[in-house]
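Task: fold both queries, return tokens.
Query 1:
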Amino acid sequence: MTEVLYMSYDGMTDPLGQSQVIPYLQGLSKLGFHFTLISFEKQERFEKSEKQISELLKQSNIDWEPLSYTKSPPILSTVYDVIRMRNKAFQLHRQKEFSIVHCRSYISSLVGLAMKKKFGVRFIFDMRGFYADERVDGGLWKLNNPLYKMVYDFFKRKEKQFLSNADYTISLTENGKRELQSWLEIPNQPIPIQVIPCCADLDLFSKKSVNEKLKYELRNKFQFNENQFVLSYLGSIGTWYMLDEMLDFFICLLEEKRDAKFLFITNEPASIVLDKAREKNILGDKFIIVPAPHSLVPTYLVLSSASIFFIKPVFSKQASSPTKQGEIMGMGIPYVCNAGVGDVEEIVLDTNSGFVVKDFSTNSYRDVATKLLANELSKEQVIIGATKYYSLQSGIEKYSMVYKSVLFE
């Protein structure tokens, strides 16, 4: 049994931990890897879900070592958490002698790199994206602030160290991999990189998981008739997702389909959408804005004729893999997206699963809206495309291959 330490600064009681960490670890546990998992948990979510997550992990023989997430003050709180993570990781290594330390993103990799240098543990840098550049592109770190400029420069230096010292790097996208392997300041290029996108639970996001009774009730509640054209948006709104531009696309759609509706499946306040729609003179009755528990999202999604997501096409998003793309495709729903984000456009073209706007102009929106309404895409082909790119089982097998490669190289 190979001992693996998996470290995440995201919590397992967070939705992200439950969709993008636990399923992989459960699958890898069945392949002969024994995990110890360090994560940082937000108090409210931990109190609500700790028992459920603990039981889930216990069933897969995963040893969970949750630590409390420190929120403030900015920067110092993270430094404090990194020290606690390091102390816990070193203590556990002395007990278990890990063969591999698998680090999710940059914060945990600070400790993973230290473990490699001190104990010779195989180090996997699961980068998840260009962390420092994402913080700048998202407006979270303003580089005209000397403190944030210092933090940005620190993580860019560390990024090079992670890539230079990792036994394997995980990228979410082929575009991210090409970018990384073009960096000549990293020695031993091309460095070993495995591309594993944000996989989706295609057992959940499938027609078989739709609650037909609830689907019928929701159709009546939202007053959707059988021929209603419903455009959907799934997930959070903000930072990366371009609400203004998605509403502009909807305006162009309304020119051709006056009775179309826009369904937002989100936990965000409805006012975020409705206030912005009011600015654009779109009537509020065109929108349905509802939250849905994760297990019922497929039933809400299947009410839609098509879905949409526009993401800011900035440098850091080359390495981005939107989970919603695989989930929408798993339901066989065509979608509209934009170019310049990760492998999104390449996947659309390869699987014939949707339509890409080349720029955020009215002409581009009208062109795609016309194609969308004349939709001749095959639902079955969209679902096959989801399996090709976003299968959880495929992701687990790729991680297993990486583990075996670093153990036996």
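Query 1 returned. Query 2:
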Amino acid sequence: MRRNGRIGGRRKALRRAPFLFSAMLLALAFALPSLAAGPWQPWRPGLESARFALEGSGPSPRPELVVLRIDPARFAFRLLCAGNRGGKARTAREWSREFGLTAVINASMYMKDQLTSVGLMLAKGYVNNPRPAKGQNALLALDPLKRGLPPVRLYDLTQTPIGRLRLRYAALIQNYRLFTPAGKNLWKREDQKWSSAMVGQDHRGRVLFMICREVYPMTKMVERLLALPLGLRAAMYVEGGPEATLYAKEGDREISVVGSFGSRPEQTQANTEQWALPNVIGVVPIP
């Protein structure tokens, strides 16, 4: 009787197996979209955000990388400069409201005159700084002058001469690279640590606006950027300290992240307001 009972139980289990298997497949089908989405939160087609925790470094709050990923097929990129906009620097929120920008990030570091970029910067119909900076080998190119060129492209100047890019794009923004095309970290000094705003581009051509509010060593930051599931093919450093800003607004959603003064908690918390910025990169939806 015991043996027959076991056999009967197995037969019943086998009869139930197809139904159980179908239920498992159905549950997996519903689960897959959320798994595929990962940490990314969609705002609208072509625009999504994510937050990535970074390992701690010192007594400051646990560092976090905030990322906005933008599809150039759905958003147009603009370089806006105070020099040809009334000479007035604006906060990222003010740039956004005045010019209808969905997202705003620093374009570059700037000089003591509070207007001029430290590297080459050309906007469409306006020259901010005509002189390339030595050692800055990242160049973000916007506003193509010829058909067939990508609308936005982050170039490595060790591979593409700057003179060639002047003939291809109307807007050029020069900054420091974070890593080489082969993925070699270019930031080695442990004492180089601060809040950081960065712009990258992935292998699908999407542009990433990135910021870490907490003070964090740049050599570790680059390591994390290469290890995270961002698919970066290139990235550049655009600003550090309290001036570093990432702002975005779409409907009820809003992101406003600013850099901090130092690594101690009270220094990080001290800066909560956006600083006025002379040059920014903004995006607007393509109709």
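Both queries returned. Flag for query 2: Confidence is low (pLDDT under 50) at residues 1-37.
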